[in-house]
Amino acid sequence: MTGTGRSAERPGLLRRVRYRLRLAAAWAADYAYVARWQVQGFLFRLDPAPYLEPAGGQAPRLPVVLIPGVYENWQFLRPLAAALAERGHPVHTVNSLGYNRGRVDRMARLVEAYLDSAGLQDAVIVAHSKGGLIGKQVLLGPKGHRIRHLVAINTPFSGSPYARLFFLPSIRAFSPRNALLRSLQASLDANSRITSIYAGFDPHIPGGSRLDGARNIQLEAMGHFRPVGDPEVHRLVAEVLENQGAPGSAQSRP
Known about the structure:
Oligomer: single chain
Largest sheet: 6 strands, parallel
Strand content: 5-15%
Strand order of the largest sheet: 2-1-3-4-5-6
Radius of gyration: 19 Å
Helix content: 40-55%
Structural class: alpha/beta
Shape: globular
Number of strands: 6
Order of helices and strands: HEHEHEHEHHEEH
Number of helices: 7
Distance between the termini: 55 Å
């Protein structure tokens, strides 16, 4: 009996080991991805203006406003910018966000100022991580009428337990106990205008990014950063935008 029990345990142990190795590989690939794009963003300061002119010969499509995550500038979302501009969407970047280190509510005010200065209506916010929290703050604020929809990729709507382990206020702000985060979480009115796309395994948000009342799309892909460059994510974001209709049309719901 003892020998039989040990034999039965081995396949289960091997599965657990393989799964943990798979998670470790995904984590390593995730950090390699973010390191490459952060270095590129630092060394090559590109002009985002070309993304305001989408590929020619297409009918006008909804404008997109990109909001990166914490310690990311707009260039980290360049794969998304290129994919959406290629599909005919004018893509706007809010350069005043810099590397997005400020409080969510303060960063939201910068986005609101940009919406006013650019005269945007019927815009869709496409955001990564912290950017999704900023996007929801904008939806709930005085300029929310300018935004048709928010597409959030790997956003910690419920926070991350790891945030409490950091001393930096910009990271600790993602603690589930953070007052501003809890206030955003309790505000359900805007959730029907949000699509949350999130990885099957996110090393930074172990609880996932599911949001009650929103359209939730869980990916097979793993990682917190790599999904930004995933063509499947680009396709899903473009599909959400298509479902929102054309500029000036009645707003559709997810």
